[in-house]
Amino acid sequence: MRRFYVAEDLTPKKLEVEVTVPEKFSLTRFLSKGLVDGEEERMDDPVANATNESDVSAAVDTADEALVAQLVAMGFSENGCKHAAIATGKSNAEAAMEWIFSHMNDPDFDHPPSPARPGSKAAGESVNMDIVSSPMAMGFAESHAKCALKQTGNDPDRAAEWLFSRIADLDSAVADCDRGVVPPAASSGVDESSENRSDSKVVGDFSLVGFISHVGKNTNSGHYVCHMKKDGRWVIFNDDKVAVSQEPPLGAGYLYLFRRTDPQS
C-alpha cells in the first residue's frame, strides 16, 4: 500500500492517512457457480486444448496473421515471418524476431511454409533452446523444460504453468512427451463441478493475521514494525522487542496478511 509521495521540493513525504481494513471478510459471493443459461465455454487456445498430436499439429502450423504483419513491417520477408510465427508458437514478436535472426540464413527461410502432414510432429514441438533456461531457472530439469516448451509452442509462461500443474507426477508427463504422446490437461485436484462449487464448504472467508507499518516521518528516518495476531491477541514485533499491543494501528499498515479460514484452508 502506498504510504509515501514525493513533494514539489523532491523530498519524500509520508501520507498520514488511515485506511479502514476489515479484520475479516468473505469472497464467497464471487465464487463461480459454473456456466449459466446463455453462456458458452470458450476454447480460445487450440494448442492448450488439443487432445492428440494431430490436433496440436493443426493448431500450431498456422501463422498468426497479426504477428506476421508486425514482423513484415520490420523489413523481414513474409515467408520468413510465417516460419518464425509457426516455430515460436505464435507467442510474441520478440521471440519471433530471435528466431528470425537465428534462421534468416537457412536455405528455406524465404520459401512458403510446408503444411503439416497428418500425424507428423507439430512445428511448435521444435524446442527453442534460447528459452529453455527460463523454466530451468525455476529449478526444473532440462528434460522437463524441453517437454513443457514442446507442449506449449515455446511459450515460457504457458510452459511454467504446464510444469507446475503437473508437478505431482512430472516424470510421467515427460515420459509421455518423449513417446510423442500429448499428456491430457492436468487436474487441479479440486472438483470443479457446479455442485461442488456451490457446496457450503467451499467458501472464501479470510481473517487478518498480521500487518507491517512504519514508525517515522519519512523514508529517511524511522523503521518498520510488525503486528501479528496470536491466540486472539495482537503482538508487536519491534526489532528484538516483543510485547502485547493493546491498540494496534490497523489503519496504518503498508502490507496486510490474511489467512483463509474456511473448511478448505
Automatic annotation (TrEMBL):
Positions in coiled-coil regions: none
GO biological process: one example: proteolysis
Enzyme Commission number(s): 3.4.19.12
Transmembrane regions: none
A Pfam family this chain is assigned to: UBA_7
Residue ranges annotated for the UBA domain, each copy included: 62-103, 126-166
USP domain mapped to chain residues: 1-261
UniProt keyword terms in alphabetical order: Hydrolase, Metal-binding, Protease, Repeat, Thiol protease, Ubl conjugation pathway, Zinc, Zinc-finger
Family: Belongs to the peptidase C19 family.
PANTHER family documented for this protein: UBIQUITIN-ASSOCIATED DOMAIN-CONTAINING PROTEIN 1
Official protein name in the record: Ubiquitin carboxyl-terminal hydrolase 14
